[in-house]
Structure formats: C-alpha cells, structure tokens
Write a structure and sequence with these properties.
Number of strands: 16
Distance between the termini: 16 Å
Oligomer: single chain
Number of domains: 2
Strand content: 5-15%
CATH architecture of the largest domain: Alpha-Beta Complex
Order of helices and strands: HEHEEEHEEHHHEEEEEHHHHEEHHEEEH
Radius of gyration: 24 Å
Bound molecules: glycine, manganese (II) ion
Strand order of the largest sheet: 4-3-2-1-5-6
CATH class of the largest domain: Alpha Beta
CATH superfamily of the largest domain: Creatinase/methionine aminopeptidase superfamily
Shape: globular
CATH topology of the largest domain: Creatine Amidinohydrolase
Low-confidence stretches: none
Largest sheet: 6 strands, mixed
Length: 448
C-alpha cells in the first residue's frame, strides 16, 4: 500500500465508522432492537473430510472491520459505545489462527481476543435479549440468547444504506480497481504472448498480487467462442488450435471491497478489432449517461437502443435498430443486465429496494436479469458492462421464432468463433458527474 493511501485510509476510516454507527443505531431503533451482533462466518466442512472450504467473510461483518481471515469472530455494537471486535484466535497448530489486527482501523474498536465460541459468548454482555444477530445460525447460537437471528426488516435497512459509499469506501474501491487493472495489463500481455486460459489467469494473479481465493469472484477467462459463456468457469490448460479473441472478466479486492472489470481483445482480425472499438465507444457513451438522479432502468433500456445501432453497423441485423429493440432481437445478443451495484460484494445488495422499509422496484418487462432498478444517488458505485455475444442457445431460440428473419445469419456464423465482447468499468456516482474508477486506474498505470 502506498504511503498516500495509508494516510487517506487513516484519515477516512473514523468518519466511515461514525457514519456506520449512526445508520446502524437508526436501523436498530426503527426495527426495535437495542444492539447488533454480527458474525464473520463459519468454516464450512468438506463432506466426509477434515478440511474446510476456503473461508469467505460475510459482508455485514467486513463493512465494520477489514479483517478477511477471522472465522467465528463477532462485531458487537450497542449505540452510544465503541464497537467491540471479539476476535476468535484459536490456539491451533494445524492452521494459523487470525492475525492480531493492526493498522488504521484498530484504534476505533475495543478488541477482545478469544480462543473459541464459548469464550466469545463470555466476552459479550450477559443479556443479549434485546440484541439482533446477523450471520450463520451455527449450532451454539441458541446459547447466545439473542432476540432474533437475521431479522429481515433490520437487514433490509442496513442493506439499503450500503449502496451509497463513504469516502473511505471509495478509497478502497479505487485501490481495488488499481489492483484489478494491474492484473488486466499482465493478462493482456500474456494473451499477446500466446498464453493458454490458465496461464492468463496466472498472469492476472501475479499482476494484482492476489491468490484466487482473495479475489471477489473467480476470473472469467475465455478464449475464442467460450466468450459466449457468460460466467465461463473453465481454465483450459491446452492452447486452442487457433487464437481469435480473449474475453477476460476479472477483479481484485482491497480491504473487502471489489473491482469488476472486463476487457475483450482481438488476436489478429481487423474486423473483430473494429467491432471491439465500436463497443468501447458505445460503453463510454453509456458511462456518460451515469449521474445522480438517473433511473438505472432507463440506462439499461438506453443500452439496448445503442446495442441495436451496433448490431446494424456490424451488419448483424436485417431490420432497423428500433425494430430490433421492439422484437427483442437485442436481447439475443445482450441477455444480461447493463450493470449492478458494487462494493463489499461483487453484486452488491439492495439493487431493487424502493426504500429502507420495504417495497421493491421491478425490472422492466422482458429484462429478467437486470440486478439494479434504483435511481442513482451520489456515492453509489455501479458497473457498466454492455456486451454482444453469439450464444448458441439464444440464437437457436431466435431462429425458431419470429426473429429468424431479422438476423443476418451468415454474419452471425462468421463472427461466432470470437464468442463475444464485453467491456466493463466500475463507476462512482458523484454529486455532479461520475468517476470512472477503472479507466482512471488503467490511465495511471500507463503513465507509470
Ligand atoms: N463478473 C460478473 C459480472 O460482471 O457481473
Ligand atoms: Mn464482471
Ligand atoms: Mn459486473
């Protein structure tokens, strides 16, 4: 971490925690609780073995403390007093237990180290009958005597507030983008040098300096036609016979906050390279639409209108762009949502909430995979990820219905070997305009 980032985090964590305490106190009061107990998460055992799956800390815990490796630990918060971290540090010689915390956030907490769950319970107030609990409902929880486990109304209020990031969180997200962009630069270099999917992932990991389980999601690294598999999870170790394209969707994490970045590259085909450039221009135009007060559903629908123009310019449709949208032809090529909230989770919570109390904002009809329907506010961080893909299943369906005559099938078969194109940036909505975390990160890397 650079000295300037360390200074920035030390300066902004206190106000972040103050804001978190204030909104949590409000949510507790509104939902009838006196205190909150948040669990970091359990180690999940692998069936019939004495191993566990890689630990994933729960987001409601890491919003308080950026401690990624602390299974069965707790944050206890009673409004009016300092939050308490009950850190589980078992005396274990099989595994290294959670590190003793250090750094910019530690002085803001009362920290108690315990060796097990029983001691964790003893480190909490005797009477938890007014306390709400959020986390895994592990076997010993009944003995804690909490008022309620995972009360929906409280979780909703806390989730709702998470969409707007504090300045501290924005610093973390900027750093996650910087690390992710460094991984992408290394991955692109590996692709140009002829690497396999697996080798490209290794380059990405090295570039961002993280192991796979530290990343916010498993990288999607797809050569050629595999770019059409939206969440492609295979990393081929053998090189393909021919190399046409790379679609890489991969992000890094910093202090619990994610980046989510996609780039697409042509190996050696001017026609496909031009289509990528066209998509890049369209993605930038969509980024320019992002500002506070804009309804994300309108951005999604605008993306379909612009996609139809790209399809026309690429000679992929035999009708007007307006007809292509009307007949759901654009959904054949762009079946996913145009973006989502980003933060402690790669697909962050609260995307459909009408307000803190209840009520959801529905998706536009015919767009079942959109993950965000809210009006943007300053502090929201969203992804912008238009794409066009040549997806067998969707093309087959379109060929069998009234859309068959609207699609230029010979052009589709010419381009199918490239899989698809997605370009994805992370955007922070400001009071005026927008900050493109991803493009800023690539630019500052290029400037050295
Ligand atoms: N990486 C998954 C997504 O872009 O939503
Ligand atoms: Mn992505
Ligand atoms: Mn995304």
């Amino acid at each position: 971490m650079s000295a300037s980032l360390a200074t920035e985090l030390a300066r902004t964590f206190g106000p972040h925690l103050e804001a978190l305490c204030a909104r949590t106190a409000h949510a507790l009061e509104k939902s009838g609780f006196k205190a909150l107990l948040v669990h970091s998460g359990s180690l999940l055992p692998v069936f019939e073995d004495d191993r566990t799956y890689a630990f994933e800390v729960h987001a409601p815990f890491k919003v308080w403390v950026p401690q990624a490796e602390a299974p069965d630990s707790f944050v206890y918060f009673a409004p009016g007093s300092r939050p308490r971290l009950v850190l589980n540090q078992p005396d274990d010689y099989w595994y290294k237990s959670a590190a003793t915390p250090e750094g910019y956030w530690v002085r803001h907490f009362e920290i108690v180290s315990v060796p097990d769950l029983e001691a964790a319970r003893a480190a909490l107030p005797k009477d938890l009958s007014g306390c709400a609990y959020i986390g895994d409902e592990f076997p010993g929880l009944a003995a804690f005597g909490v008022a309620a486990a995972n009360p929906r109304a409280l979780i909703r209020r806390l989730d709702y507030a998470r969409a707007a990031k504090t300045p501290y969180e924005l610093s973390c997200l900027r750093e996650a983008s910087r690390l992710g962009a460094a991984g992408h630069v290394a991955a692109a270099e590996a692709f140009r040098a002829g690497a396999t999917e697996f080798e490209i992932e290794l380059a990405f990991l090295r570039g961002c300096g993280q192991r796979e389980q530290e990343l916010p999601y498993n990288p999607i690294i797809a050569l050629n036609a595999m770019g059409a598999v939206l969440h492609y999870q295979v990393l081929q170790k053998a090189p393909p016979a021919e190399r046409y394209s790379l679609l890489i969707d991969a992000g890094a994490e910093f202090a619990g906050y994610a980046s989510d970045i996609t780039r697409t590259y042509a190996a050696d085909d001017a026609d496909f390279a031009a289509l990528i450039a066209r998509m890049d221009g369209m993605q930038r135009a969509l980024c320019d639409q992002v500002r506070a007060g804009v309804d994300w559903r309108d951005i999604h629908l605008k993306a379909h209108a612009l996609t139809a123009e790209v399809l026309r310019d690429a000679d992929l449709i035999l009708c007007s762009p307006a007809e292509a949208v009307e007949a759901h032809v654009t959904s054949v090529f762009l079946p996913h949502g145009i973006g989502h909230l980003l933060g402690l989770e790669v697909h962050d919570v609260g995307g459909f909430m009408a307000d803190a109390e209840g009520g959801e904002i529905g998706r536009p009809e015919g767009h079942p995979y959109l993950r965000l329907t809210r009006v943007l506010e300053p502090g929201f961080v969203v992804t912008m990820e238009p794409g066009i893909y040549f997806i067998d299943q969707l093309l087959k369906a379109a060929r069998a219905d009234s859309r068959a005559g609207l699609i230029n099938w010979s052009r589709v078969s010419q381009l199918s070997r490239f899989g698809g194109i997605r370009i994805e940036d992370d955007l922070a909505v400001q009071a005026k305009g927008v900050e493109n975390l991803t493009r800023d990160a690539f630019r500052s890397l290029a400037q050295g």
